[in-house]
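REQUEST
  id: r-88c1
  op: predict_structure
  target: Nucleotidyltransferase
  payload:
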Amino acid sequence: MIREWMEEYKPKNKAEAQQALREIMQEIALAGLQRSKFFEVAAFYGGTALRIFHGLDRFSEDLYFSLLEVNSEFSLQPYLDGMAREFIALGIEVSVTKKEKTKQSNVDSAFLKSDTAWQEITLKAIIPQEKIDKINPAIKIKLEVDKKPPPGFQTEENLLVKPFSFYTKCYQLPDLFAGKMHALLFRKWGNRVKGRDWYDMEWYIIKRIPLHLEHLAVRAKDSGNWHSDTMKKEDFFTLLIEKISSVSMKQVKEDVLPFIKDYTKLDIWSPKYFTDIAKLIYFKGDADY
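RESPONSE
  id: r-88c1
  status: 200
  body:
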């Protein structure tokens, strides 16, 4: 089943096959969480949600979730046990490790890691013409749950049909866009840049997805990056233009390259391009929404 599933991706080399295998593991993880009734209390968001359910044409690494209501006592562990059982039922060797906290936080985290021997056998079955190293780096997927989510988001049920048919509760697109813009504008990575944020912003704009500005404002205030529960459109554009003018486009492109197939899509990327395309952003509640 896994081999047939991977063949749908038509990987041309080991790197593409490994990305496909990661995505298959992500979807199996979602299936295990659904069986454990995780989506009765939480919703899926982030770049992987956009990739799996809305056709974003780049691969993504980790799984991000938000509780539907604030619950500081929430524990991810029971749901991790159910997720691990789903992999076992499919004959897939993985380890699931809860991240131990060194300081108090509103985020519960865990890591899903593939067994290298199982991974090697699977990759060899798909890419026989290419030499597969004896030991491949294990695929590692982080799972993160926000136990104190900022309010104001809406959810919807999205369907997956593998490894069986099930629904996943996800943020709606305008709220996913708000979360992405919060990350792009306020991510605290020092001099590092996450080019995937810029790739996703471009995708939202081109797809004509409206931005839920009210939810962005609440998120920004919750993270300590904004002073109010509201944000004017001109304030948003001021923040975005400042970010565009200060970011290193070279670093932006370098970060996103391992996650896409068509590198030529980045040729047009420049401060001028993002300044111009930003003018096409519109907002949830606008007359044409």
